[in-house]
Amino acid sequence: MGEEIPEKHFEESKMKAQKENKYNRLLPYVHDIEEEAEKLFIDIKTNLIRSVLGREMRPGCAMWTSRLIKYIKIYGYKFSKQDHIALIKLFYELLIIPDLEPTRVNKCASTLTVLLKKKYLLSREDLQLDWRPLYDMCVRVTEKTKRDLGMYRYSASFEGTLFNAIRMCRVYFPASATQEILDEFKQYLCPFNTCDMSYSMEYMELFLPCHVKPSEAGISYKLWFDELMILWNNCQEACPWENYLMYMMTNLARYQIGYIDWQPHIANMFVRSLFQRSLLMFKNYGVVENVIYISLV
């Protein structure tokens, strides 16, 4: 039988950390993990700050960012809440640096996603982020990839990584940002212009905050919910922007359980969902026909 590990050791450790890797307690050198992790994190934090202050994005900042990711994989979120918030704000500021290399944008976005992954560790009172710098950066970077590749190489997962980071940050957007976002995109909501409509719906789905308190409903989703539902009901044809609207409603239903009456909208949303997933295209004597198959099981 091995030496029994005192529970007090873990209790003291858990009080300091946001979320530790619970499997580390099974290691034979468990008594040394606390000192080892603390020393390594101080080293990472110090050198990361030095790299940023010295404007050394590569190799300094890149190397210590990779070590931070490895640290989280091995030890979990074994740092204080203050350090957690400071790291998030640091990589948020790095992400929105103008004219940052796409590889650095991708790395900062993926790191920010990891830091924001455990939503229950930080409340909206602990952290708030501004949506406008992220939107400006997103438009600048994504539109550049579509317009001109230039000398930079964009990975296939670049846009997905960036959008995932924005969705993680969206939880910490203030509810008051809803009106600002609507003022930015409602001007493009025209069903007869598919391009502008898809553009506005995509960014509204990406940025509109839904993780709000019930007391903030009047300045958040109630500003757009009824209006978008009426618009959706009046557009009978299958539109390319419907998926974004469905994702938006799904996200709202996830975070506002019990606060919205979905009963009047369920039938329409169900039919739209079937229509989108059951529309098949085939050629018959040179003519393209649309056939809808609805199977009831």
From TrEMBL:
Protein's GO biological process: proteasomal ubiquitin-independent protein catabolic process
GO cellular component terms given for this protein: cytosol; nucleus
GO molecular function, one term: proteasome binding
Lineage: superkingdom: Eukaryota
Name of the protein: Proteasome activator Blm10 mid region domain-containing protein
